[in-house]
UniProtKB/TrEMBL annotation:
Keywords: Transferase. One of its GO terms (molecular function) is transferase activity. It comes from Streptomyces nogalater. Residues 280-311 are annotated as: Disordered. This is CoA transferase.
């Protein structure tokens, strides 16, 4: 890797041919990061060309979890430290504890009327992607003449990023009072997923109320229940709960899946059978990579327009990102690049993005929208007109990154495809964040979070051993998909900085699902049986979650609550749950600490997460709770 010593930062590195095996070719990686976070980071670094080493002399002497990148150019190694919190050393907390403290259990549990763990190691997966983002950002800073020797990434930051739109909405001044997990009434069993008479689990999707009404009309329903159902259905992305009128799922349970599919096909509403991971593999082949990075032209980029603006904390300072995106995945990717110092320019339709007005508001803007778009500039352009498309082309001509999440083929229709824009700007990284990724076939279903959970097999992966799929109404793939997209963009920028010319990056919600599934295959609950015993558990007052040590964790749990560990599994689970309901949460937390088990109180409301002093270094108070950058860059 060719970089510039700090003393010579005014000198631009000579362009070199980008290595065919990735921008990290010639780099070795070692370290002690374990579990899903380390597995994700190592897999992505190796996909970029790095070679894993286990025999480096100082690989095991550093304290805590870390990854070490060693370039082949004689510069000092780059160390990425994975910490529980940004600026403090708390006791070692696991995935379950961060889901409890960060609000993931609360959001995921809204549809189940109580906090519920995501069975996969979601916080760790997000942490691994953030670690790679930080390392790529540091390498970009080095290539621009800035000395960076260490990056710190906190799991607390990853947890809060996962719930950031929900957190902003919950802490906005005019946020409605939810009244606790059960305030909406018993919603379990009334919302997605759905079951047909012949035993098929499936999901429904439409972003338009007309197909919704026509679909239910085709099944013999109409009137108030359908209208009420539409409001609950369309709001599930924002609220993570869908309390449908019971008549709707009952109607579906009275029909065979073939009849339901036919009604969907006739009315334009998508009906997607929930596949298992094995079915997905048999039909689609191996899991897709997190992103596809490839050259988008043969030209060499001009000299950096702003070589001296980068700083250690803002490696992308002086770069411009043009973002034409909607919803969560694309805006979050742009938001991440902005937190790394880039100037982000949003392209919005005339009158602005309609989501700006979504409730609740934080000042004069939607809190959810603000969580993903704060600080971005806005240019309004009607892409249906030649003038609007020309505006976007002019912006892209001067940009470093062009990012969009349009449906497949739209970029070509607009004349804003990679070939066109990269020919006009040989310094451009062109990024497409889609639902299904590049495919020669038309997308079979809308590329939305819940469709991809169903189609990828992730809904079954999250079943946690249940005999039914358990998709979450928390937008796990939209968030992780945005993080993966930003990671790919950073890889493209590094390849460009090394003289590789314009780059194209393709990522998708489907590739984000693969990140979770690949990590779960070796580091999820099946690889750590004690994770199934970590909770959450209801007590006499509140819920608790545990971080059980490997090996003897279950026995320590049984010793703490006073039940014999020799009971068979189901009976032991019932005995533990029954015993924990006899005392308040705080009493049990002290009891567990006395037995060497770290226990935490589950935050049942996101406002409690925002008030937790352990997250003070992650959050910036204001009209609503917003996140600070999740990395710390040190020289």
């Amino acid at each position: 890797m060719s970089t510039v010593p700090v003393a010579d930062r005014a000198v631009r590195p000579a362009p070199v041919r980008a290595p065919r095996t990735g921008p990290l070719a010639g780099v070795t990686v070692a370290g002690t990061a374990e579990g899903a976070a380390g597995a994700v980071a190592l897999h992505h670094l190796r996909a970029l060309g790095a070679v894993r080493r286990t025999d480096l002399p100082d690989a095991g002497r550093r304290a805590g979890e870390h990854l070490v990148l060693r370039p082949d150019d004689g510069l000092p190694p780059l160390v990425c430290a994975l910490r529980p919190f940004p600026d403090t050393d708390e006791p070692t907390l696991g995935e379950t504890a961060f889901q409890a403290l960060g609000g993931l259990m609360a959001v995921n549990g809204r549809q189940w009327n109580g906090p519920r763990r995501l069975p996969l190691d979601y916080v760790d997966c997000c942490t691994g992607v953030l670690a790679v983002q930080g390392m790529l950002g540091a390498l970009i800073a080095r290539s621009r003449g800035v000395s960076v020797g260490q990056v710190r990434v906190a799991r607390s930051s990853a947890a809060l990023l996962a719930v950031s739109p929900y957190l902003a909405a919950a802490t906005a001044a005019d946020a409605p009072w939810r009244g606790g997990p059960g305030a909406a009434g018993d919603t379990s069993g009334t919302g997605p997923p759905f079951l047909s008479r012949d035993g098929v689990w499936f999901e429904l999707e439409t972003l338009d109320s007309v197909p919704w009404r026509e679909f239910w009309s085709a099944l013999g329903l109409g009137g108030r229940e359908v209208a009420r159902g539409w409001q609950a259905f369309v709001n599930r992305y924002a609220e993570a709960v869908a309390p449908l009128p019971p008549l709707l799922p009952e109607t579906l349970r009275a029909r065979d899946f073939a009849d339901i599919s036919l009604a969907g096909a006739r009315t334009g509403l998508s009906v997607c059978r929930i596949r298992t991971a094995a079915e997905r593999h048999a039909e689609d082949g191996p899991l897709p990579p997190p992103w596809r990075l490839r050259p988008a032209g043969t030209g060499h980029p001009p000299a950096d327009r702003s070589p001296h603006l980068a700083t250690a904390g803002q490696p992308l300072r002086g770069m411009t990102v043009v973002e034409a995106t909607r919803r969560i995945q694309g805006p979050l990717a742009g938001h991440v690049l902005g937190m790394l110092g880039a100037r982000v320019v949003r392209v919005e339709p005339p009158g602005g993005d309609p989501q700006r007005g979504a409730e609740p508001a934080a000042g004069d803007c939607s809190a959810r929208f603000l969580a993903l778009n704060e600080g971005k500039s806005v240019v309004e352009a009607d892409l249906k007109t030649a003038a609007g498309r020309r505006t976007v082309r002019d912006l892209a001509r001067e940009a470093d990154v062009f990012l969009h999440n349009w449906a497949p083929g739209k970029a070509e229709v607009f004349g804003l495809d990679a070939g066109t824009l990269c020919a006009a700007n040989p310094a451009l990284v062109y990024a497409h964040a889609s639902g299904w990724g590049p495919t020669p076939d038309p997308d079979p279903f809308p590329g939305t979070d819940f469709m991809v959970q169903a189609r990828s097999g992730l809904a079954w992966d999250m079943a946690g051993g249940d005999e039914r799929p358990r998709p979450t109404l928390m937008t796990v793939l939209d968030v992780l998909g945005g993080l993966v997209s930003a990671e790919g963009v950073l890889a493209g920028l590094l390849a460009r900085e090394l003289g590789g010319g314009p780059q194209r990056v393709d990522s998708s919600l489907s590739s984000a699902a693969a990140v979770l599934q690949r990590a779960g295959a070796g580091h999820g609950p099946s690889a750590a049986p004690q994770a199934r015993w970590e909770g959450p558990y209801e007590t006499a007052s509140g819920y608790i979650a545990l971080s059980l040590p490997a090996g003897r964790g279950l026995r320590q749990l049984c010793d703490a609550v006073g039940v014999p560990a020799t009971l068979p599994g189901p009976a032991l689970r019932r005995a533990v749950a029954c015993r924990l309901r006899t005392r308040p949460a705080h009493g049990w937390i002290e009891e567990f600490r006395g037995h060497g088990v770290e226990a935490v109180l589950v935050h049942e409301e996101l406002t409690a997460t925002a008030r937790d002093p352990r997250f003070a270094a992650d959050l910036r108070p204001g009209a609503c709770a917003l996140l600070l950058p999740p990395w710390r860059f040190l020289s």
